[in-house]
Amino acid sequence: MKTLTAPAPPPAPTGPAEVVLTLEHIAKSFGDNHVLRDFSLDLHRGENVVVLGKSGSGKSVLVKCIIGLLRPDAGRITVLGQDISTLDHEAMDQLRAKLGFLFQSNALYDSMTVRENLLFPLRRQWLADRRGKEKELVQQALEDVGLGDTAEKMPAELSGGQRKRIALARTLILQPEIILYDEPTTGLDPITAREISGLIREVQQKYQTAAFIISHDMDSVRLVADRVALLADGRCYAQGTYAELAKHEDPRVHDFFI
Amino acid sequence: MFKSPFLAETGAIAQFTGRFFREGFRPRYEVREFLYQCFVVGYQSLPMVGITGFIMGLVLTLQSRPTMAQFGAESWIPTMVGLTIIREMGPIITALIFAGKIGSSIGAELGSMRVTEQIDAMEVSGTNPFKYLVVTRVLATTLMLPLLTVLADAIGLYASYVGINTRGVTTLALFINNILSGLTFADVLPAFFKTFFFGFAVGIVGCYKGYYANKGTAGVGAAANSAVVVSSLLIFIIDLLAVQITGLLGLN
After folding, report:
1. B225 inside 8 A of chain A by CB
2. Where's the ABC transporter domain (chain A) (predicted)?
């Protein structure tokens, strides 16, 4: 498959939008289960791309390949100009500081308070310019997600929606250039899900981050997507804006939009 | 191809241990987390280790008294109990208690962190979870168990002194003199060194079981359980090896 010609992404304020993430011919199997066969996609700065797919179609595998938790069997992943298969552990850690990842399960450290959860990535990355400003950064990240007063609570004391917000705050605190969302609205009630979708939009507008969003919640997809790619049979089956795909004739695409 | 689960597991633990030595001594060093783990592992096992050590010394003394009295050898009780505690009972009982308390908690903690993707989250935030979680814990158990053993030995000997004084009268000075006259460095040092290996075994097995826990809550329970079972078994095997090696070195 050739590199895809995407419909023009929303123009970023700083000149033409550069490509920040390229997936080329990604394949990944677990035994005989060929989850990804030949998946290619580009992501531009400041753009929200939603990858849509049925459960078990390999969406989570895809996003874990990007962040380096899994290694693809074939294909190339280029993040911010660096081919991640060539990076050693240290270089990968440095790159990860520019990559945010929101886990489906939130993955908050349950032995730490919210503040310590947010401080963890901050302290682990040796960013000299952020030294001494940790307190403000934590407060800023918490306020970005609308939970300024929860810093001293334990994750277990929070509701599902609040935990999702804290997880997002922990992702935001390093001010990443790309955020990967793994099913950000799964398991939330429709109202909270809509709030989280709104938050994803706000983050995009405020920080000009690119977002790679895995989802099958069509309500959320409609709200957050600049571009939608459909993952089926382990490849990028179709892509376009939400409106374009909603009018698509192929029944496999159309079924998602009913 | 025939594949024995036992051999596969042994190989996997050996590989895990190899990774510990490869990664453990390269920077960056997680000093803060290591000190915190020393506190958790060492300080919080103190009450358990103290109580078991005390009872061990007391019971040994009270039990051996009638037999020794038959031979008119009551004055040898301190020497005998001292040797028993320092050479064998102190290290092994402390290690088993330690495996039950610390091995299971490490297995359960890392297991639930694995299951809830917290270990992945650490990796994503640019932290090597193996170093941060495994290396610190294994080093802490390796260094803390010997200290706890020395403490348990001391408490056990004191309990023995108390036990002797329930039936007769002995001064502390005579009691200690009696013990020391029967002890050589060949008794103390091998017993002390083997506890490092006991502690290492508890840490490595607990971490291995937790780090590779299967998905789901059942996986966490299984990790905690098998961490205790396997590390207790390993403690006995190491003990057997230790006695063979000290024998070959002519120290028995």
Report:
1. no
2. 21-258
